[in-house]
Amino acid sequence: MSKVLVIEDNNEIRENIVEILELADYEVFVAKNGKEGVDKALLYLPDVILCDIMMPVLDGYDVLYLLNKNLETTAIPFIFITSKSERLDLRKGMEMGADDYLTKPFGRLELLNAIESRLKKKECQHHFYSKSLENLDKLVAENSGLKELKRIIAERKTRFFKKNQVIHYEGDNATGIYLVVSGKIKTIKMTEDGHELMTGIYQEEDFLGINIILCNKPYDDTATAMEDSYLCFFPKIQFDKMLQQYPDIAGKFLEILSNEIRNKDASLLQLAYQSVRKRIAEALLQLFKHDSTIRISRDELAALTGTASETVSRTLTEFKNEGLIERKGSTVTILDYDKISKMKN
Q1: pLDDT digit string (tens) for 183-192?
Q2: Rg for the chain, CA atoms, rounded
Q3: pTM above 0.85, yes or no
Q4: 161: helix, coil or strand?
Q5: Which residues on adjacent β-strands are paired with residue 207?
């Protein structure tokens, strides 16, 4: 039987939630304010926490902050229940690590679906973590640093981002870094004439935001999910502590950062000197690093290669006629990888 902790100061709302959950065969614990909620979360270690935002003693943000600082509770799925729907409040909660929102008033099915969805995603985390941890053996040598990195990842919860959902905006303060567990993330900047320029694509096993964290600056681009994606978040305090304690890991992250800088330098040279065909060929190879088939719009490919959407469409048609790719709508499959590889050289 799954355990749910309900932290809500309104008696009527709290009792209605408890009644619904108990009828659905959940074991329910209740708290009437934030302080009591933190105490009961540490005592019972529930599988899911439902928490109001505006409460006496400690508000919902305080509760989430304190639970995230405790290793026993930081991975528990956390759902805010609130009458607030302003974008700023939603963003603040998500940036702090909340998994979902339920806006009052909500129905029985909406409540149960939100909880069941979080429980299913928690089960899936074990699969994602095991896959990611196996691949991390390639990143860091077998030593105490790797063991610590694995321990930290095992304690963090993955965050789900739907396609086109923003991870961070240009100008936001960076609070940590992300490890892409699955999916694809793009980073973009807006040019003065209002066009998008894609500055990077991050895929499975890539770290997002290392350069920003190390230089202590706000984000200089906007990161958005290109497809449904799972990301693992490392708070800045935890990341800094890991780098200070384990020089081997610090060295590896510097290597990652150096490679990222080299790749961006290479992209700038491509934009300046290479033909459109070579730039698009290079972009396709980059996108196909983990997949044999991808979905990408011509506008996204244009932003990545610094060219017009019409030019991208024409070039992809040429590639298709030459038998290099197969294209159906926004789905692209490479048919002749070797020829495309030679084209970019």
Answers
A1: 889 888 876 7
A2: 23
A3: no
A4: strand
A5: 179
